[in-house]
Amino acid sequence: xxxxxxxxxxxxxxxxxxxxxxxxxxxxxxxxxxxxxxxxxxxxxxxxxxxxxxxxxxxxxxxxxxxxxxxxxxxxxxxxxxxxxxxxxxxxxxxxxxxxx
Length: 101
Known about the structure:
- The protein has one domain (29-100).
- 62% of the residues lie in helices and 8% in strands.
- It has 5 helices and 2 strands; from the N terminus they run ααβαβαα.
- A two-stranded parallel ribbon has the order 1-2.
- The chain is elongated.
- The termini are far apart.
């Protein structure tokens, strides 16, 4: 049975070793900083990297979301550029979901 699983995994690996597959994976990643020592400056720097990603890598999709502690949400909102409104909407959703728990 282990050999069968290995065969399936290898077949899928070869089929998914494409630029499109890697682009999809990249677009599903949440950029996360959940460190107890996070600072506004550090979070702002992280958000600026998200803002500049499209300019630096125009052929690649950006991250799916930014995940931070609620105390850093204001910093993310203030630093996030207009281009990333959909990302901000997902951020708002995650905040509300967290607050409803």
